[in-house]
Amino acid sequence: MDDALDVVYRTERGRVLARLIAVVNDFDLAEDALQDAFVAAATAWVTTGIPTNPAGWLVTTARRKAVDRLRRAASAERRHRAWGELAVAWDAGDEGASPGPIADDRLRLIFTCCHPALSLDAQVALTLRSLGGLTTDEVARAFLVAEATLAQRIVRAKRKIRQAGIPYRVPAAAELPERLGAVLAVVYLIFNAGYLAASGNELVKVDLCDEGIRLAQLLIDLLPAEPEPLGLGALLLFQDSRRDARTDDRGRPLTLEEQDRSRWHSGQVAAGRQLLGHAQRQGRPGPYQVKAAIAGVHAGAARAEMTDWTTIVALYDRLLEWEPTPVVALNRAVAVAMAHEPAQGLALLDEPALAAALVDYHLYHSTRADLLRRAGRLDEAAAAYRPAPDRQRRRAELPRSTAHRARRPRWVVTGPMKLIPSPYDGVAHPARRTDSGGRPTTGWSTATV
Amino acid sequence: MRYMLIIHNDPELHPLPGDPRWDELMAGYAEFSEKLASDGKPVNGAPLNDPTTATTIRVRNGETLTTDGPFAETKEWMSGYYIIECDHLDQALAAAAMVPSAKYGSVEVRPVAEM
Fold this sequence. Notes:
The complex is a heterodimer of chains A (449) and B (115). Chain A is an all-alpha fold and 449 residues long. Chain A has helices at 2-24, 27-48, 54-72, 76-92, 106-113, 120-130, 136-142, 147-164, 176-200, 208-222, 227-240, 266-281, 287-299, 309-322, 326-339, 342-349, 352-357, 362-374, 378-385, 389-397, 403-407, 442-448. Chain A starts with a helix and ends with a helix. Chain B starts with 19 loop residues before the first helix and ends in a 6-residue tail after the last strand. Chain B contains 2 helices and 3 strands. With 115 residues, chain B is of the alpha+beta class. In chain B, a hairpin with a 2-residue loop joins strand 1 and strand 2. Chains A and B meet through helix 8 and helix 22 of A and strand 1, strand 2 and helix 2 of B.
């Protein structure tokens, strides 16, 4: 029974919680009542067996538990307000006495959790905690933060949702592209955190890659008319198909060029192509579809030297239309070098604006070194691998903490060094979280992560 | 002439509810409001929720940037205010993005505390 309950917990918790939040209009009350309902299920289901519709059973039970909790609630203010709302929702009774199929409120919940008025780390924590099947402890371990820190982050986020009036709704059509971009960015960040952790820290048991793919699938199911979730799903599958080939025997990361491509999972590649095909047939291209297309080109090359770099350069040109960021420009320069001559890629890297934007980005210097090596300029390559003294000094002199630096989620910078940035790699880096004035720009960064 | 009184607060010094000084403070505000009203000066004032509930909007190149928190630049100074009635934060953020100065500075959106 424990196992069966565990399965229900993993598969149904998000949907049931989303429904409850819609009904009781209170994040914490919904979570507490759901916890009560799971405790009740542990006893009741031993005798009755698992109900045919466990989610419906849980919603009905949790609603009763919420009523009980409100009756006991000491705060008269809370009782009046929330009790009134609950009574209304209860009377409206979209379910009646027998637990029937429940409406899917997860879409609303996703948009609330990924609201741009919340900090990015709060968005990630809330999304994983509410829509993933993970406990606070598991989320904390996956991101290498103390459980208390993460719990505090979630408490603050919920408080802001309540006090600032962040709505529990799917954005209107006009807002949807921007807001959906934020949601996709959070899911991509979750996947990437798992991707980085996979080769860096074997102790992390929680698989954020799987969690990211699951969330992408959820978005595809909930927004079937939107091509970008399909694009994200395809991108994640292409990247995940390489999970067994990404490191050598000693756990060191391998570049795409070095990987044993026979270890790529062809099933995932095929599934990715199918999703990307569905997306492209809708005729509304977007950044995730283009990133997926780039990853798809790599997936289609049986050997590294068979890679169609000319197509990849063209795809990066398209990506720059949506994401004119230094990191995309860096990846494009690599593709140009591979499609033509290393010198042409180097010329792009040495353009003053790009060099200045990426001076503190380690992958810029390792990429430059790699292209110098390929061009046969070995002395320069050796020098480029080491940060120059003036650059070190500069870094030390940087103001210690503009607010965003301290607030930047740790996990985006804890990845292993790679000699070449994966051309499809969209992992966030600090420069993309600030605007020209060095201010934190959640909206911008979440749109481009 | 109209003047706006901008109240700044140091959370480390400011008393909290339950402290007798809090009650004294609240009584003081009530008295102050009454005094202004009885002097025939129209009053439009309200307490705000704390900065952790704030969201800041900037508009750059036609794109709206949304940030959790107040995050005013030190060189930015408060240059005006609106109090608007909205159903939820999304409406308030949309209104903030329409403030013309959002193109150059920032607009902080902070819920008025419900008393």
